[in-house]
Amino acid sequence: MPAPSRQDLTLSGIPRAAYIHIPFCRRRCYYCDFPIAVVGDKLWGENSGTITQYIDALCREIAITPSGGADLGTVFFGGGTPSLLAVNQLEQILDALERRFHLQAGAEISMEIDPGTFSLTQLQGYQAAGVNRVSLGAQAFQPELLAACGRSHSVEEIYTAVATIQSARFTNFNLDLISGLPTQTLEQWQASLSAAVALAPTHLSIYDLTIEPVTAFGRRYQPGIAPLPTDDITATMYRLASEILRGAGYEHYEISNYARPGYQCRHNRVYWQNQPYYGFGMGATSYTQQQRFTRPHKRQEYFEWVEALERGESVLNTPQTARVDMLLETLMVGLRLAEGLSLKALASQFGEAVVQPILDCLAPHQAQGWVELSPPGSAEGRVRLSDPEGFLFSNVILVDLWTALENYQTGLAVTG
Amino acid sequence: MTDAPVSQIRNFSIIAHIDHGKSTLADRLLQTTGTVADREMKAQFLDNMDLERERGITIKLQAARMNYTGVDGQKYVLNLIDTPGHVDFSYEVSRSLAACEGALLVVDASQGVEAQTLANVYLAIEHDLEIIPVLNKIDLPGAEPERVRQEIEEVVGLDCSNAILASAKEGIGVPEILEAIVHLVPPPKDTVDQPLRALIFDSYYDPYRGVIVYFRVMDGVVRQGDRIRLMASGKEFVIDELGVLSPAQVQVDNLHAGEVGYLAAAIKSVEDARVGDTITQAKAQASTALPGYVEAKSMVFCGLFPVDADQFPDLRDALEKLKLSDAALNYEPETSSAMGFGFRCGFLGLLHMEVVQERLEREYNLNLIVTAPSVVYQVTLLNGEVVEIDNPSTLPEPQQRQKIEEPYVQVDMITPEAYVGALMELGQGRRGVFKDMRYLTPGRTTLIYELPLAEVVTDFFDQMKSRSRGYASMEYHLIGYRENSLVKLDILINADPVDSLATIVHRDKAYYTGRALVSKLKELIPRHQFKIPIQAAIGSKVIASESIPALRKDVLAKCYGGDISRKRKLLEKQKAGKKRMKSVGSVDVPQEAFMAVLRLKEE
């Protein structure tokens, strides 16, 4: 793990991280509103013309994206279900990245994989290609809950998948779990947490279910209303996860993420430190030269966009993030981390004058134990949200901070 | 403009229900007489306020002078004086009618007579106007001119044997209408030799020229440069500009008895030249003013508060400016514990209130919180003194008062027979006293109720429309004050009484209203970090209570690279929502909550 304090200071700059979107899935889970393409249960990897065509466009996009000049420190294959790729398709993409940007020695290369979609040979193949961190979408350890959220795999397949990961000797692996699923009880949640801990992953992502409007869940359910658990229960689930996982030796290092010491996800930290990153593939977002740009969500439109890019047409036509917005985004993502934000770093980037309104705004939250300042009373130390209460009400705190800072003149910034 | 002999002048107005084609007919008359060239014609020339065009109703009246050569070869001057088409403005209608000798009664041949039309026809009959029935829209497939002809005869009692069949849209019947105006409407009385008396039937404020006054000369002559006196306001002015409306303003040297025109005289506020006032010469004054002048009386009141307290001075300036052109608008500063500084405003009726609100928001870019409308209660104190209360929060305590009286109106509803049951239920539910039911023609009925005005100013009109699928129409007028068992219903949020949420209700309905109100507020007020009790109380007795559970979490579970922009928008939205709320103690209450009493579900 790099020391966070130094990293805080650079907000703009050259991207050293790349996100690759692999949109294919066997089917769509009921909670999912990601840009994906359903390929069913048979035609995966090289047997799928759709996938082959996509990899081609993706590699062409990588090949013509201007490099900032720095080697990549992290690569993240997200989806979708990246484990629907054949090993040589993954190699193809990594080759393209290597040719265009170069990968640092020891770069973190993560890949999302789903139970029931990979074999040991396949996993060893990914590993040989360079993947050194895998993230397994387990979500729940009860067959009825897996069925309730439309997952394509069984509980049994989760155990098989973990055994395969261990056989391939991946030392760095993550498990995803979701709390707040329809009909889920506190007892079931506790059982899932215990089952996950027993599998000894180095990292756990614990997501409180968000009901997105354009999903099967969004059509069927209303947050907080049965069969969804009440806010009271899901808040208890959140506290329970924090208590159990910290008790088992995991650091609760981000609102929804836990890791053994030394195993925080370096790629995701890039987002939370509001640093730049490349994004490749349909629906992927990049943040380069202070522009956030999201690629087309539909496959055909993405292909056309890549062609336009190849014809040299300007396609990253989003406005530059204004300084004040950069400040708000830095607060929004930075306070997700348990280590919080360095006031000194904020002052040097956005001006000394930024510190006082932040401290004033946070004072009442500090009084009720949601915000911590270390060392206490210092205008140069770090501000962070408390675990779990501050995390649970982070939006309340952010809305107050944004209101306090909306007219902040970042032009007064003194660069230090 | 040629000087027209009094005998050749015809002054008339058009009485019609909304959508029955008044504006289209007016346009057609302007076109046929060549007053407005075809190419200058924009749809509905007379309604020139945006709001009016959007709603298809006429709020401010206008006038137009037309030159017409009759079939008999004689030259005539026709003055069309438009009337506003809404019940809130019946005084203005009566002044317009007083300026005419005749009226076209336009009725949609597929619909029939509506309540508002009926009220205005009776006004016209009271003013002794010659009424010419016109059955419009006869080109439509659903037209039933015979049925409607019979209906007018039976309902209004007018002889319709010579009713003109017309389609203003298609131009059918327009020449016949012009001939009927010339031959049936009597010319004005020739009183040119008498001292000047001119009736103001409309005025508006022009930022460059001051108030522009529209008037009809009843007696005598008025000239450019005359020093005039307004008999009700007692103010004197020198005429800078005198003219006629054709329909654009055209200056003339003088106007004599029977003519219609406008003047500008550096008048600073419409209050100085109110509708109904009499213009006379300062030097040779008329001995008596024209009859019928009435001071505007506000019927409906509400609080207007800026969402953003910084906008208070802007709101004050905007009201001052509106007042220059709207003499019926009254306001005075109000301070509320929940809303801060604002104004208590009085209006002629609900539409007037909406119009003012919309103009403030649109033309002056203000973001307003409006409290539920209230009427004026007459409260007799123990010492016999009578006080008028237009703000529920200022109602004297029960131990200080003898009785409360509230204004009553007679509501006439005209409806297809099928909806009589539903409308009677509505009248009954609103504490109405059933007075009469008459069959107008087979299938059409008029229902007459006496109702507390307070029950009418909420959503009565909307309810009447929805219960009759839009077919019923209504008219109401004040009939006096009546004593009732009324109580003040207080709303407490987190144990604090909120003055802007207090209402005056009938004791028998207090329990239901209280329950409905607290449950509506529970829906509208967001969760806070603590549990919030919401109570309805009469005096110290709580009659309904609910509570908003505490907020348990407010967190974005996932936030990765692709989520940042979207999550930011979510938080921005949350922030904007919070800014639109008013703090009541430690509770943030959204704008809609202050109008909640209007949105209670029907029992």
From TrEMBL, chain A:
Chief location bin: cytoplasm
UniProt cross-references to Pfam families, sorted A to Z: HemN_C, Radical_SAM
The keyword Iron-sulfur is annotated on this UniProt entry: yes
Location relative to the cell: Cytoplasm
Ranges annotated as spanning the membrane: none
Statement: the UniProt record of this protein carries the keyword Cytoplasm: yes
GO cellular component, one term: cytoplasm
Domain Radical SAM core: 10-251
Keywords: 4Fe-4S, Chaperone, Cytoplasm, Heme, Iron, Iron-sulfur, Metal-binding, S-adenosyl-L-methionine, Stress response
Taxonomy, superkingdom: Bacteria
Any one of the GO BP annotations: porphyrin-containing compound biosynthetic process
Role: Probably acts as a heme chaperone, transferring heme to an unknown acceptor. Binds one molecule of heme per monomer, possibly covalently. Binds 1 [4Fe-4S] cluster. The cluster is coordinated with 3 cysteines and an exchangeable S-adenosyl-L-methionine.
Family assignment from sequence similarity: Belongs to the anaerobic coproporphyrinogen-III oxidase family. HemW subfamily.
Identification of the protein by name: Heme chaperone HemW
Organism: uncultured Synechococcales cyanobacterium
